[in-house]
Every structure is written in C-alpha cells, then in structure tokens.
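Onboarding guide, step 5: your first structure request.
Type a short instruction followed by the sequence, for example:

Predict the 3D structure of this protein.
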Amino acid sequence: MAEERLVGIAAVEGTAGYAQTIHAGHHRLSADEPASVGGTDTGPGPYGLLLAALGACTSITLRMYAQRKGWELGVIRVSLRFFQGGGADRIEREVRFSGPLEETQLSRLLDICERTPVTLTLKRGVAIGTSLGQGS
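The system replies with structure tokens like these:
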C-alpha cells in the first residue's frame, strides 16, 4: 500500500448566518449561500467551490501536460455544471482551448481530463472522518 501524504489543508470559520471564511494554506476565500435561501451571497456556495476545484485541477493538469509536450493550448476555459436528482449526482465538464490543436492532441487531452487528480478523487469517492469538540 502506498504511503499516505498530505495534499491539502483548509480551515473554515462561520460566526453567524451562512457566510464562511475559508483559509486554504495562506490563501483566504469566502463561501456563502445565495440570498434566495437565506445567505448573503458573499461567495460561491459549497458546490460552486467543488466545481471550481475540479475546473482548476483540470486546467492546471492540462497546462502541465501540454508544456511537457511543447503544445500551445492558448487560453483554457473549463465550464462545469453540477446536477442532482434522477438517481445520481452528475457533473458535466466542457473544456475549450483557444490554441490550434489537432484531433490527435484533443483526443489525448480528453484522456488526461479523465485522469486529473481531483477527477480521480471524485470518481473514487473519499473517506471522511469527523470529530467534534468545543472551544477554539
């Protein structure tokens, strides 16, 4: 079995309402819910953040691969939509490039999309351990 390694760390704080302050490493982000469900819409909701993580991982992984191959991708635009219901959750991902690419390159990039780290984590599922406590 492979040795376990830490690949991310985050802390989330909420004081009132649904607005959340997220500390991911030394970065600060926000999350919230739309006003239509009682939030203040100061940041994306949790599913928006999940999609953002998948999209960022997709774009970064494709750029790394293309740089190793010497391919010019131009602008990479990853559009994502999350659907619930109908018996299973589903994410649709569309990736577009502004650079000129051949069909063989596009086919290889599609294969890479299916093997990005966050894609594989979502497809595999992940165990989540939770503990509760009091105090800061």
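Each response can be followed by summary notes, for example: The longest strand covers residues 76-83.
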